[in-house]
Each structure stands twice: as C-alpha cells, then as structure tokens.
Amino acid sequence: MWDGDSLAYDQAPAVVAALQAAGVDVVDTSDVGQRLTPYDDGRDPLARIVDGFDNAPADQPVDLVVHQLTVWDAGADPAVQLAALENLAALTAARGARLVLVTAPVVIPSLSAPGTDDLVANAQRVAAASDGQVVVLDQSSVLGDEFVEDLDGDGVPERKPDGVHVCPSGAARVAAWLIPELALRFSGIEAVAPSTWVEGAWTLDPRFDDPPGACMAR
C-alpha cells in the first residue's frame, strides 16, 4: 500500500509502475490532504488505510504499508504526531503488515511546516520501539536538499512551480530510489532497472498537468 498526501499522490503513478514492474501488486491510498493526525471535521484519519486493507484481494492481502510523512502532520503538536504514528503502526501490525515511513521531499521555505523535524524524530521513535516492524527511510537527498524545479538543468522539470509537488521526472526519481530501498529490506520485491517502467503511460496521467502546463519542458 502506498499512502500519503498530495505529494505522494503526484508520486503515485511512478511508484505504482515501478512496483508493478518489480512484481508487486499495489493499493494506492494517497490523495490530496491526507494525514494521520485528526481532521477538524472528525473523520477517521486511518479510514482510508483500513479500506485499503479491506479492499485488497483475499488471496493478495496487504503485507507492507509505505506511508510518506505529510506536511499536514508536520504542522500538528508533536505529541499528537507521535500518537498518530503509533496508531498507524498498531493498525498495520494488527493486520499482519509491516510499515515503512518515508520522509517527504523538501518544499519551499514558506510552505514548510515547522514541526517537520519533530515528525521525523517521532517516526524514528516509533520504529525504534517496533522490534523491526517499522522502518524509516530518508529520501531527503533524492530531490535535493532545497527546492529546485529543474535539478539537472535539462529543461525537464522535476518539480511543479508551486514549490511543493512533482512532475513525472521527479516522481520517477523517487520511485527509482524507493524500490531498491524496499528490495533490500523485504522479500518478494525485486530491484528492476528503471528502463523497464520509466517511459510508461503513467507519465501522461492528468495529475501532472495540474495546473495546466506545470510540467511542460522549459
């Protein structure tokens, strides 16, 4: 299961394509505004993940949840962050799955949440207490240590001009990093060459043209 907010949602087409190329079936529960800490309207923040478990094929139950930490949770009180992460870890364990918590790519300073360091520290705290059932992966260097739209100057942007989200090239970089990291730690995932999936139809997903022209070559 791949989970997270709009940043993870933009990465999802590449992550799903790469995992499928690695022989893994994927449930994608990422979406705009998703979080682990409580919503103001009282919705259960874990409902989508429960649905992901429940809607998986009976002969292929979810055995690994990969959740990318969100800016929405980074803005919460550290104690609330910790409780939310503990709730997610308890849910995945109760369902017989392991949990990977992935740090999020850097965004522009004006949109960064001041509690990001607390959220990462709390993720590491949950992992340390999990007897290996929870793993934290740090992707801070995958898209750079500061927000840059075109990382290699080739005219093809990795990031959208909003200072947060990713284009196909950025999503591909995340997926190309993530799948080998998972393959090192979990059986049943094969680290395949990016050439087997990187030019697939996923690159034409409409989310990469939201807003229009956001990912056009410059």
Describe it.
There is one protein chain. By secondary structure, the protein is α/β, with parallel strands linked by helices. The chain has a single domain, classed as SGNH hydrolase (Rossmann fold, 3-Layer(aba) Sandwich), CATH 3.40.50. It has helices at residues 6-21, 47-55, 71-74, 78-94, 116-128, 168-185, and strands at residues 2-3, 64-68, 98-102, 134-137. A four-stranded parallel β-sheet has the order 1-2-3-4, sandwiched between helices. Helix 5 links the parallel strand 3 (98-102) and strand 4 (134-137). The termini are far apart. The model has no long low-confidence stretch (mean pLDDT 95).
State the main characteristics:
218 residues, alpha/beta, Rossmann fold, 35% helix, globular
Structural class: alpha/beta
Structure summary, number of beta strands = 4
Mean pLDDT: 95
Strand line-up across the major sheet: 1-2-3-4
The total domain count is 1
Main CATH class: Alpha Beta
Second CATH tier, the architecture = 3-Layer(aba) Sandwich
Which superfamily, in CATH terms, is the homologous superfamily?
Answer: SGNH hydrolase
Helical run tally? 6
Helix content: 25-40%
Order of helices and strands: EHHEHHEHEH
Mass-distribution shape: globular
Tell me what portion of residues adopts beta-strand conformation: 5-15%
Assign the CATH topology.
Rossmann fold
Distance between the termini: 34 Å
CA radius of gyration: 17 Å
Low-confidence stretches: none
Most strands sheet: 4 strands, parallel
